[in-house]
Amino acid sequence: MQDNGVMRHTHSLRGAAWVVGYLVFVLAPLFALLTGAVGPARDFWTEFSAALGYAGLAMMGLQFGLTARFRWVTEPWGEDVLYHLHRQLSLVAVALVIAHPVILFMVRPELLDLLNFVDAPWRARFAALSMASLLVLLATSLWRARLRIRYETWHHLHVVLAVAAVVTGLLHMVGWGFYLTDPWKRALWIALTVFWIGLLVHVRVIRPLFMLRKPYTVTEVRAERGDTTTLRMEPDGHDGFRFVPGQFGWLTVWGSPFGITGHPFSFSNSAETGDGSVEMSIRRLGDFSGRVGEIPVGRRVYVDGPYGAFTIGHPADMHVLIAGGVGITPMMSIVRTLADRHDDRPVVLLYGATDWESITFREELDEVAGRLALNTVHVLTDPPSGWDGEQGFITADVLRRHVAPPYGEHEYFICGPPPMMDAMEAALRELDVPMSKYHSERYSFA
Length: 446
Ligand SMILES: Cc1cc2nc3c(=O)[nH]c(=O)nc-3n(C[C@H](O)[C@H](O)[C@H](O)COP(=O)(O)OP(=O)(O)OC[C@H]3O[C@@H](n4cnc5c(N)ncnc54)[C@H](O)[C@@H]3O)c2cc1C
Prior knowledge:
Blueprint: H1 4-35, H2 44-66, H3 71-74, H4 79-107, H5 122-142, H6 151-176, H7 183-213, E1 216-224, E2 228-235, E3 248-252, E4 263-266, E5 278-283, E6 300-307, E7 319-324, H8 328-340, E8 347-353, H9 362-369, E9 374-380, E10 390-391, H10 396-402, E11 411-415, H11 418-430, E12 438-441
Helix pairs in contact: 1-2, 2-4, 2-6, 4-5, 5-6
């Protein structure tokens, strides 16, 4: 295995290279506009608005790459950061795309006639269709919960609207021939189109084919405390993959890898099993997770992974794990792995749960404590009578009571409900823990 320091350096370089490549691609026409001469047929503002439209469309197209689960793209940052970026960049892309017609209508009011969808030429209709798809895409993403749209329905709609927005945007551009006159601009667009088609083929055909050839078999279905079920899965006819504790995979149980059916779950077993088997511990929350307990032993499933940058391996004198609810699963993998590796550094696990009976892995944590310098601190919101342990929520004070200074020397891992994660990140800042020393995994991409 590669040395962690070298790996982190490679990731930083790769991350920086991606950012530069991205900016060059998206900003190329703006640079050309600022440095090159503007053709006589097009004034500055027309060219500028077209460049903004180009940049917006290019950003939208590149969005597919951010969420396509390419390990060489996601590794430097981790999936949750990329999904966050995906959301923020979408807002910028939409702003650019809207700015494009607004500027045009301001400098050339005669173009307002193009808003008449019935009489407008197709190239203008495509623009309207692209804009409409984009706005519905944005509204359904920002307000999915408020609009009470099921995750699966939203995900399908999201893909359809995104493809529609980009394809009609592209057709609009081809219709005007705006960015197809200069050879280098033509090259940029051909590259982007090839990239989109390649991406689509990779995500929808090539990767599912690989997954189909590497199935897993469910060998154990274990009921856990806290409405949670652990699935143990063994590679069927292949060696599986190796993961780093803290990482996760996409699980497909019903449906084929060709559909949009995968759900993300952290691995909860030790990374040291050596036989390629993986375990996922899944809390009953909705349609999919609610049916996990019904999965029969022997069922063929698909696991796409490993993903995620929420991993141990950084220099640390002590690991501090802060878990809330089902956020215990990656922590379980971390403590099991450290125990199997006979790691002698102290581990403090601050574990928030509702009550004593619903503490997932309660007994296993006691067992692991016999093999690792592990101090588990249960923090209960609904403690039993006579409870003399921590109660309420995990706070900076709870941290101070159970974690010995120097706080900046330890490595922190946080996973749990969003309010807990926000509170913990604020608490660590309060304790002057540098950002590079704490890692968060948010269980929500959308
Ligand atoms: C990196 C990561 C690791 C996770 N690890 C675990 C774990 O170890 N154990 C565990 O119990 N849960 C874990 N989760 C949460 C788990 O993925 C969701 O609870 C599960 O997908 C819910 O699906 P559902 O159909 O049962 O519920 P629903 O009611 O349909 O969904 C509940 C919420 O889960 C999210 N969600 C649903 N489906 C998906 C999907 N296909 N892809 C992404 N998000 C989705 C949405 O935010 C949705 O609002 C993890 C999530 C992430 C992002």
